[in-house]
Every structure is written in C-alpha cells, then in structure tokens.
Amino acid sequence: MAQYAPLKRQLVLVVEDEPILRMAAVDMVEDAGFKAVEATDATDAVRILETRPDIRIVFTDVDMPRGVDGLKLAALIRERWPPIHVIVTSGKAEIGRMKLPADCVFFDKPYDERRVVAEMHRMSRIC
Amino acid sequence: MNEADRLDALHAHDILDTAPEVGFDDIVRLAARLCDTPVALISLLDAERQWFKARVGFEPSETPIAQSICQHAVGQRDLLIIPDLTLDPRTQSNPLVLEDPHLRFYAGAPLVIAEGLTLGTICVIDHAPRPEGLTEVQADDLRSLARQVVSLLEMRRLVSRHNDLLLQAERQQNKAAHEHLELAAMFDQVPSFMALLKGPGHVFNLVNPAYLRLVGNRQLIGKRFAEALPDAAEQGYVDLLDEAYRLGKPFTQKGARYAIRNDPHSPVDERFVDFVCQPTRDDKGTVTGIFIEGSDVTEHVLQTRRLAALADLSEQLRDLINADDIARAAAECMNQAIGGSCIGFGKVDLEKEEIDVPVDWCDASGVSVVGSHHLRSFGSYIEDLKRGQTVVIPDVKIDPRTASQADSLEKVHCRALLNLPIMVRGVLDTVIFVLNAQAREWTSEEIALVRQVGDRTHAAIARARAEQEQHILNEELSHRLKNTLAIVQAIATQTLREVSEKDAVTALTQRIGALSRAHDALLKKRWASAALEDVAKATLTAFDQAGRFHLQGPSLQIGPRATLSLSLLLHELATNAVKYGALSVPEGRVTITWTIEQGTEEETLRMCWAETGGPPVQQPSGKGFGSRLISMGLIGTGGVELGYNQDGLIASMEAPLSQMQQP
User: Fold this and answer.
1) Residue A112: its chain B contacts at CB < 8 A?
2) Can you give the pTM of this predicted structure?
C-alpha cells in the first residue's frame, strides 16, 4: 500500500487496549511506511508522548480502561502538543457526530485500513 | 221549539233538586187557598220525571214523567183544565187517578219563560171531580201565580249568574295572586340571574338572589349600575347597557368574562357569564329600562379550559424524554388549567429534605419561590409527598400539617396550596406545586385534574426512562458488536498477511465494514427497522464519493434482514463501480432510485442502480462472491436484472415490500 518510502520513517503512536486490534493497527501503520509505537491506554500514551517528542501522529481508540478515554486524550494532545495530528476510532458511531477537538479525524470501527492510511499520509505531508 | 231546547232552558235555571224556597212555597199555598183545592204543585218537567219545586197536599217530591198530568199543559198558551180525570182519555188510565191518591180534578197554568219555552206548570188538584172547573177569578189568580213563578225563576237565575260572576272574579283574583307568588318564587329560585334596570341611568329596580350571589351580595336596589358595580363598569358593561337602551335592541353575550371585585382590596373572582339584555318599553313603545337575564357558566368554561390544558399536556408529553422537561410541561398545564398565585415545580433532595425550584409562574398576587427551600420549613406534609399522596390544603392556617408554619408560608404569599408528588421508581423525585395567596376551596374538578396531570406525568417519565435505558443498552450492544467485527477484521488481515492476493483481503475487510455500518443504521430504530435512505447513505459513505451518488425515493422503513442484505448488495455494486464502472472515471455518476408499486396482490419495492458517464461495461466472465452477492438481490432471493449498457451498468432490483419490511 505504501506509495513511497520516506527517508526517515515518521513515528505513529497507536493507542489501543485490545491486543489483536493493536497488533493489526501496528501492522497497518508499518505497512504504510511509518514506524509504530504502541500504547495500551491513554496514561501509557501520555507517558510515551512526554519522552518521544518526535511522534507526529496519534492513532487512538476511544473506549479504553483506566480513566482517560481517547477523546480526552485527543483534547489533552491538542492542548499540550498542538502540532501532533490525531486520528480517533471507535465502535460508537455517535462519536463521529460529536464535536471533536480541532484537527481530529474520526473513523468508525471497523475501519477501512486504506482510508486510515490515506489520512495518515495526508497528515505526514503537512507536518 | 223542540224538547231539547226546552230541557236545556230548564237545566240552565239550575233549579232541579234544589232545597225548598219560601217564595215558591208561599205561591203554592196561595194557589191551594185561592182555588180551594187540597193539592197545589209547582211541577218542573224533566226528561224522565216531573220534579216539584214546591208542593202542598202531595207527598212525593217527584213522579215518573209517564204519570205526569202537567206534561199535557206543555205547548198550551193557557190553562189546562180537566174537570174529571177519570173521563179524560189522556188521564183516565193514570195510576195517580186509578190508585191512591185517586186524583179527580186538575187545573194547571204553564210556566212559559221569555224565550217561549214551557218549563212546567203550577197546578191545583182535587180528589173530587169539579164539573164546573175553576171560577173566572180563580183561573185568573192561577195565571197570575204562574207569572209570579216565572218571574221568581228568572230572578233566581239572575241572582245565581251574578253570584257565579262574583265567584269567578274572586277565583281570578286568587289565581292572579297565586301566580304572582309563583313568579316571585321563580324569580327568587331560578338558577339564572335576573335584574330589572330602570331609566337611562340603569337604576336597579329588581334583582333576584342569583344576581346578588353573582356580584357578591352588594347593595343594589335604587342605585345606578355604574355606582353599584364599579368593577363591571370598568370592564365596559355600562357601555353595553347604554347602547341597548339607546337602540332599544336586545343583545346577548356568551362566555363573557367578568372579573368581580367587591372592593379595591379584595381578590378578583373571575367569572364567565352568558347573558341577554332586553330593553323594556311602556304602552307607547318608549324604552323605559333593561331586563338582564343570564347564567353563570364559569364552571363550564373552566372545565373546557381544563380539558384543553390536559389535551395539550398529553400532546407535549409524547415528545418529551427529559424528566425536567416533563415536570415543566405538567406545571405549565396546571398554570393554564387551574391558575394560582404561584405555580412551579422543584426537584427534591430527599436526604437534605430540600426542594430546588428552577422556574415558576406567578400572577400579581404571588411571589416567585425560585431557589432552594427546606421542605420542613413549610410544614409536615412532606411525609404525604414521600408516600406519593397529593397534598390539598385549602387554608394553611387551619390545616394541622401547616398551621404551625403558616407564617413562613405567608412570606411567600401562600395561604392555600396543592402539591403533586412525582415519583420515580417509587421514590419522591419532583414536586409540582400551586400556591394561592388567599384561602381557596380547591374544587373536586381541580383536584381531579391535578391527579390526572400526575398520572400522565408519571407515565411519561416511566416511558422516557425506559426509552433512555433501551437506548443505552442498544448503544452498548452496537458498540460490542462493532468491536467484535473489528476484531474479526483484524484476525482476517493478520491471518491473510502472507496472501499475495491483497485485493481479496481488502474485499473481505470492506465487506465486514459494510455489515458493521448496516448495524449503525439499524441502531437508530432499535434494530426494529431502518430508513432505506439511511442504509444506502451509510454504506456509500465508505467510498468517499458522496457527490457522485444521487439518491431518490420515498421515505421508507425496512426490516433488519433487508437492511443487512441491501447493505452488502450496495457495497458490492459500489465496489465494482469504483473498480470498473462509472466511478472509475471522474465524470461518472450513479443514480439510485426506488419506488413502491401497487401490484394486484401486494406492493413491490423497485430499486434501480444506474451508472452513467463511465466506460463501456461488459458482463464479467467469472462468478465470484461479489457477483453472487449482487445476484441474491434485495432480500437474498434474486429479483435482479443487470443491463451492461454502453453508458454503464443498470441494475434493476425488486422485492415484495412486505418481505423488505419483515421484522
């Protein structure tokens, strides 16, 4: 699916609590020519973001255990790391109709990988 | 002159069977003496008998007409004299002659009245024959006495008629007096109010108790309308009277509002009346006053208003799902239907025993109670509310639940109150209240209305809650289902990672996606049905070609099975269109139309997928899963025709509507 291979692979943080889904998402990200970093929940994700300033895209689930959900994570990122692009995904279709933080893109679960990848490529070009 | 006229005249004298009278008795005595006979009679000839008004020397008071000798005198102008009754053929076989008392001589003078009719005779009778009859003098005397009898009869008749007239007059008078009393009683007792106004100043001349009740027992008689009822004057009623008086024409009003206020400090009593103002006139036709008659229709107007408010509430409750909105609608309904100084509702915090009032409606005599209040500070009736009982207090100073707190209630202008508890899961949640600045006897209709409002409100809250719970459950189910589908998709991609045919993997994951979106469309209607247009849009949005699909058709709900098969079908058609058909070139378009056709036996849904502006298409050679999905049609049983036209693919699909909508 990768249309071109960037010289230095950009980092995408995948936040997903369900292992199989996380595995598939990591594969999708890697196949698209990015380098994937994994987090199992929002707290984990914040810890990684604090140590890896080179992360440019966050791909996160909404429903996750332990407090902070994907929407709050997106809002937090918008506040603390404004340049990072955020992609949100959820099985709750109504989230797509809610107001999301600026520059957040939503994909309904199960998502079409090609469309998610296309969005990641678009984001990587404008960063 | 026939016998009937004669009998009518006799009966008109009203003398038969009357008691003896001195005048007539004297005459027979005189006749017997003058004619020197033992017997003298005044005999009146009835149809079947002769009856004696006066008699001497003869015992029976009447005899059958067949034994009457006098009857032979009828039609005679002068005396009938029979010297020997045993010799005369008319009398010789008469029992009175043959047997006791053995009558022998008869002389009778007819009693001829003014009309020429003979009512009877005055006669003298002897037990011995008198061949010589009567002397000239005696005959003359008997004639004179007959005239006397006739004039006595006549006089008697006149006196009796006079008495009749007097009696009649007296009866009339009694009747009139009685009728007057009856009218007066009616005037006093009728439920309608009545008043008679005199002159151009409309001075009260007569009023009935109903009228006094209506205006609050004010002094009216002798006063001008404007002076006696300034409240009514202020509301334009004097202008109406002026006009009725000036034009001399009656006018009527129905349901006219009359806000009664006995004095400027007392509360307004709002009444509704139907009435007619009828000008009265003298003999010459000049208007002299106005008669007012009408009825108090307040209860009817209020009942109509209450019913309208209830109907409004039912209408509103149908669409409300939030408990606060429902309570607000209920309070608004009570405001409209019952009214009061202050009406509102508040959420109850049972632990703190506090009520928080977010909004209320007040009239001029009320003060707003918006804010938080401790319920105990208004009395002990919170215990009733907790049990779900409606609290009805006509006077807070008297009711034992509030008497001790009457002062704090007075601060919020509350002298009477109605509280309706709204229970949620059997626990007091909200109170709807009506406060009144004056003591108020809540009518049974008002209390019934409050109960009805309560029932409807409870039902609405229960329904809203059930709907909400159902919605949450549906969302949760949908979420789980889609997560499972996402995992299935992930397992499929992971499993097929090493497969070189990537298109097949993509087709699989996208079909799973189409299935998932069909569930979204179903979720909106709780998996019972989905709007056909929503299903098509949800499926087609995955292709990011929104502007190139054109959808047209009536709004239509389809069942869950049809939703799933239609989603998969549209997904395959769109996938093919993107790969090989109209959507593979920028100018291509797809038009999707559907119609319902009325067949002979059932309705049919026809759907057409028409591609235009694309490259020429050809029937695919193979028979892959995609082609088979398409050929299964709208409900999985076929009914699809594919046209591979120069212009683009045309897919015509049809299915019975009943099957499309099958739950």
Assistant:
1) 509-510, 513, 542
2) 0.50
